[in-house]
Amino acid sequence: MYSEPLRALRARSLASPAANFQGAVRNHHVTEGKTELEVLSVWFPAGGRTNSHAHTADQVLVVTEGEIAVGIGTDRYLLRPGEMIVIPPNVWHWHGATPHSDGCHLSIKLTTPTDWGAPPAGDQVEFDAYDDWASWLQGAGG
């Protein structure tokens, strides 16, 4: 038996904070309010992405359209619809659309803080390397 009544949730589109994203990224809060689970649908225009960040809980990304690139330290991933990745807690990473394709993913994690500060110095080189897409893609795996 649930202690609170069930309620229908409606997504609403918001511009993502410019301080944390590059490009005109939009997100839809699928879960809102009093919930322990945060589910966001995040849409990236071609070349749009998050800045580097880390979460205090696992984050699951499920690609729903286009291509999504994920950088975790020196590891590179290129994901397509139906593919997913689990990013462990406290791991600096970024994700977004490839330069030639819009993309969208679901982000699923516990409702915990995100650290948008500076990544460890060694990781910053890898995040900056995304700007040279052809070189970056050579190291991508799936």
What features would you describe in this structure?
The protein has one domain: Jelly Rolls (Sandwich), CATH 2.60.120. It is built from 2 helices and 14 strands; from the N terminus they run βββββββββββββααβ. The chain has helices at residues 121-128, 133-138; strands at 13-15, 21-22, 26-29, 37-44, 49-50, 54-55, 59-66, 68-72, 75-79, 84-87, 93-97, 103-110, 114-115, 140-141. A hairpin with a 7-residue loop joins strand 3 (26-29) and strand 4.
Task: Give a quick summary of the entry.
This protein is mainly beta. The chain is 10% helix and 42% strand. It is globular.
Stated plainly, the CATH topology is called: Jelly Rolls
The number of helical segments is 2
DSSP strand tally:
14
Series of H and E elements: EEEEEEEEEEEEEHHE
The CATH architecture classification is Sandwich
Topology:
Elements: E1 13-15, E2 21-22, E3 26-29, E4 37-44, E5 49-50, E6 54-55, E7 59-66, E8 68-72, E9 75-79, E10 84-87, E11 93-97, E12 103-110, E13 114-115, H1 121-128, H2 133-138, E14 140-141
Parallel strand pairs: 9-14
Antiparallel strand pairs: 1-3, 2-5, 3-4, 4-12, 6-13, 7-10, 7-12, 8-9, 8-11
Key terms:
Jelly Rolls, 142 residues, 42% strand, four-stranded mixed beta sheet, mainly beta
